[in-house]
Write a structure and sequence with these properties.
The complex is a heterodimer of chains A (about 500) and B (about 350). By secondary structure, chain A is an alpha/beta fold. Chain A contains 16 helices and 24 strands. In chain A, helix 4 runs parallel beside helix 5. The longest helix of chain A is centred in the middle third of the chain and has 16 residues. The radius of gyration of chain A is 25 Å and the shape is globular. Chain B is mainly α and about 350 residues long. Helices cover about 75% and strands about 5% of the residues of chain B. A two-stranded antiparallel ribbon of chain B has the order 1-4. The chains are: A alpha/beta (about 500), B mainly alpha (about 350). At the A-B interface, helix 9, helix 10 and strand 20 of A face helix 10 and helix 11 of B.
Chain lengths: ~500, ~350
């Protein structure tokens, strides 16, 4: 809210009719946006809408093809390669730029250490950092090592580093993507303090509820075009989503087919212990979509990495189709038709430096071997099929996977896992960092799989999607199951209560 | 069947002709032209055969190194391994004379010993790297020292010489020709073709590339990472044993100076050929060309007085640096983005 400061309506940074082309390909068309001191201005749009390119132009990393940038009302050519920081414009990337083994104060003063006759003024730097941390309400010591901090704290260190360089415009690319709900709230409280100091904040996020909560104004981009800029209080997450995709999203989630309660159990887990996971017992029926909810670090991924042979199982029994199994490797799990799709598609899912074909067939490669030789024709055919089936959009098949958008990478990863025709699919964070349109496609795909009789486990930190597609939701907390929800009991409130430990493990069906 | 796929690959290569993939071939052609201009005898049949034969040792070892490097590893021990294997081969064959005589059987025994030792030594490198979880650089730096000192110990600081009679039996393996090409060149050709097929046409080769690109992705894609990585070192060891088998009859001896710096020459051949040192992209064809380029430089220097033969290392070093600089392939782009 404008707090009556005199400068709160003056735009600090103003982009006028910015267009950008890469070679012959236009990606931004005449975008106008102004950023005022002391406001949080959210920038939203689907993947590929041009948000990243626009942010890079705002911070000087790319020059615009046409249009003007005004800084304090004066036309400016922003210097390239991060030198815009000297003008007070700082871009904070999703991948943080901190030296992990150095302390908070060393990081904050990195590259412009205070010295006297060539000797570091350690005390002065320490005091300066301590007062900055106190100012934003960050409860860490200047001498803490970055590697010991939580992600939210690291993010705030980046922000403090920017402030210490007198940043007036902070541009943040999905700062909350990796934060838990609690961390996000802490982060937002600190953002409020920055606003009060008169810092202008550009905030990019796919989490529309958060945008509603924190932003003062919202600018929507679609297909490289400016759609609208509106005060956040006039918008709801639904209207924002509609502006982003340009159509009604009533069919975001597919119609729910009733789960067949008499279907045979395909996976039964009893008393599983692995790492943080303690005494897990659950089962999965044929054709069921089973959601796994919980806070980050609750051990949801560990359960399934242990089941698939990626993590050691300490004790407990796993039965597939009623037969006890113990997988030593992912290959053993694959042989019985179990596939695990990692949430970390860039580090564990796809070979970013390779093309689509080797990525697609890597998991199912034994299926593409004919008389000891790789059957490249069959691989090509598989790629053509996958591109059609999963609607993967890439410029051409020779594109490196690392250059594809997050949504298309996710669809390729899904296609890769499905090449083995698994009977049990475990999808960890199916829609992390992808746009609404692709989310919708993935939800419909999951529903179609279940209708065909494939059993699907969906691990997700986004409650709406668990509620939208799951037949049953298991909530975990600190390595244990705290609740199981079915039917109309699957609500955000119930999930949150179990996830936060507010509700004890119920003996019978828990009522809200 | 494989002939069809090879043709297909050739056309595909011709279509995507660019400096990055054609670089080593262009460099070799340029070197040959220079060689010919300096002295026409460079392209004489005798010199070409000599050049190919000398390339065979490093070339065969470098084919193995291509697998190790593509899968994200490195093997520094190959030169010492060759020396140690040569030493044990000679000791074994000399000792077998009394019981088996100096005929083909003894030579075959020596070759068998060589292959077993090569595979064993490669397996040790691989197991220490994967099961022992020690970095490949450290493991092979260690085994490099061990193998080198072992050959010195076996030779008691001097030279191990092969019995004169066995030398007569074994000699043709290095000195004889088949269809106009020396035996070592045939071995080189066969190893190169098998290596190319293994890397480009089998699941194993694809797995090596995947592991070198990103081990975590490989693991999550149901690839037995440890087994594949160990296999690359075993292949490397096998290649070293083959190179040793054709090397021993050349001099009929082994000493602490046998195979010195072969590991660096092999790695250089791999890198000049376009394989990426940090893994994830390997080219057997490039490796072959890399080995030929290295040998050709030395050969040209022998033919001319313009540059001292002692500067052989300098020329090789320059070629390696220039090759890698050109292969980076982004030197044009980085300039553009700075504008």
């Amino acid at each position: 809210m404008p707090d009556g400061q005199t400068n709160s309506h003056a735009p600090v940074l103003c982009a006028e009719r910015i267009s950008k082309s890469f070679g012959p390909v236009p990606v931004l068309f005449s975008i106008t946006m102004d950023i005022r001191a002391g406001e949080v201005h959210a920038l939203i749009g689907e993947n590929g809408a041009g948000k990243s390119t626009f942010m890079k132009i705002l911070s000087g990393l790319y020059p615009p093809s046409s249009g003007r940038i005004l800084l304090d009302g004066v036309e400016t050519t922003l210097p390239a390669d991060g030198q815009a920081e000297s003008l007070g414009i700082v871009l904070i990337h999703q991948e943080l730029n901190l030296a992990e083994q150095m302390t908070v104060e060393e990081n904050i003063f990195l590259g412009r250490e205070l010295t006297k006759n060539g000797v570091l003024q350690r005390q002065a730097m320490h005091d300066s950092v301590a007062s900055l941390l106190a100012e934003v309400g960050l409860d860490i010591s200047p001498t803490d090592r970055i590697s010991d901090l939580a992600i939210a704290q690291k993010q705030m260190v980046e922000v403090v580093k920017a402030i210490s360089r007198d940043a007036r415009v902070l541009i943040m690319d999905e700062p909350t993507a990796v934060l838990t709900e609690a961390e996000t709230q802490l982060f937002f409280r600190q953002i409020e303090k920055l606003k009060a100091r008169g810092v202008a904040i550009v905030f990019v996020s796919h989490k529309l509820a958060e945008v509603k909560q924190i932003a003062d104004r919202v600018t929507v981009l679609r297909d490289g075009q400016w759609i609208d800029t509106k005060a956040a209080e006039t918008l709801t997450p639904d209207t924002m989503a509609q502006m982003m995709v340009g159509r009604e999203l009533s069919d975001l989630y597919p119609p729910m087919h009733e789960a067949d309660v008499d279907a045979p159990h395909v996976l039964q887990v009893t008393g599983l212990c692995a790492g943080i996971v303690q005494d897990m017992s659950f089962d999965l029926r044929k054709g069921e979509i089973l959601g796994f909810a919980g806070l980050i670090g609750a051990g949801r991924s560990t359960v399934f990495e242990a089941i698939c042979g990626l993590e050691p199982v300490e004790s407990g029994e796993i039965r597939v189709d009623g037969h006890p199994v113990k997988f030593q490797s992912v290959a053993d799990a694959r042989a019985l038709g179990i596939a695990y799709l990692t949430k970390d598609r860039k580090e564990k899912g796809l070979l970013l430096g390779q093309k689509m074909r080797p990525n697609l067939t890597l998991f199912a490669l034994p299926n593409f071997v004919k008389n000891h030789w790789l059957d490249t024709k069959a691989e090509d055919a598989a790629l053509t099929r996958a591109i059609r089936r999963f609607d993967i959009r890439a410029r051409d098949p020779q594109t490196l996977v690392g250059n594809m958008s997050g949504g298309n990478q996710q669809k390729l990863l899904l296609a890769k896992i499905m090449e083995t025709d698994p009977r049990i699919v475990i999808i960890d964070e199916p829609t992390r960092g992808i746009d609404v349109g692709t989310k919708q496609q993935i939800y419909h795909f999951i529903a179609a799989l279940a209708a065909e009789g494939v059993s699907v486990v969906v691990i997700s930190s986004e409650m709406p999607e668990l509620i939208g597609i799951s037949h049953r939701v298991i909530v975990m907390r600190e390595g244990q199951i705290t609740g199981t929800l079915t039917g109309d009991d699957i609500t955000e409130t119930n999930i949150m209560r179990y996830a936060a430990g507010l509700k004890a493990k119920p003996e019978h069906e828990g009522q809200g | 069947m494989s002939a069809v796929t090879t043709d297909y690959e050739k056309t595909a290569k011709r279509l995507s002709f660019d400096l990055k993939t054609a670089g080593p071939a262009v460099a070799l052609v340029i070197l040959c032209v220079i060689g010919f201009l300096l002295n026409p005898a460079f392209l004489s049949e005798g010199n070409i055969t000599n050049l190919l034969t000398r390339s065979a040792f490093i070339g065969i070892i470098a084919v193995g190194a291509t697998f190790v490097i593509t899968a994200g590893g490195i093997d520094l021990s190959v030169g010492s391994m060759a020396a140690a294997i040569a030493g044990v081969m000679i000791i074994t064959m000399n000792a077998a004379i009394d019981t088996m005589g100096s005929g083909v059987a003894t030579v075959l025994l020596g070759c068998g010993v060589s292959i077993l030792l090569g595979i064993g030594a490669g397996w040790v490198n691989g197991a220490l790297t994967t099961k022992g979880k020690i970095e490949a650089f450290i493991v092979t730096l260690g085994t490099m020292g061990i193998y080198r000192s072992l050959v010195t110990y076996f030779a008691d600081g001097g030279t191990l010489s092969l019995n004169f009679d066995i030398r007569g039996t074994y000699r043709p393996v290095y000195y004889d020709s088949f269809l106009g090409l020396p035996i070592p060149v045939w071995v080189f050709i066969v190893v190169a073709i098998l290596g190319w097929l293994l890397l480009n046409r089998t699941a194993f080769g694809r797995y090596c590339t995947a592991i070198g690109s990103n081990e975590a992705v490989a693991k999550y894609s149901a690839i037995k990472v440890d087994r594949i990585k160990t296999m690359t070192y075993v292949i490397q060891g096998f290649c070293v044993s083959l190179a040793t088998i054709i090397y021993v009859p050349r001099l009929g001896s082994a000493s602490s100076s046998t195979g010195v710096l072969w590991e660096l020459e092999a790695i250089a051949a791999v890198i000049i050929g376009g394989t990426v040192l940090k893994g994830g992209y390997g080219r057997i064809g490039g490796t072959i060309l890399g080995a030929l380029i290295l040998t050709t430089i030395g050969n040209i220097l022998n033919f001319t007085d313009m540059i001292s033969n002692y500067l052989n290392g300098t020329m090789q070093g320059l070629i390696i640096i220039v090759a890698v600089f050109l292969q980076r392939g982004d030197w044009g782009k980085s300039r553009k983005s700075e504008d």
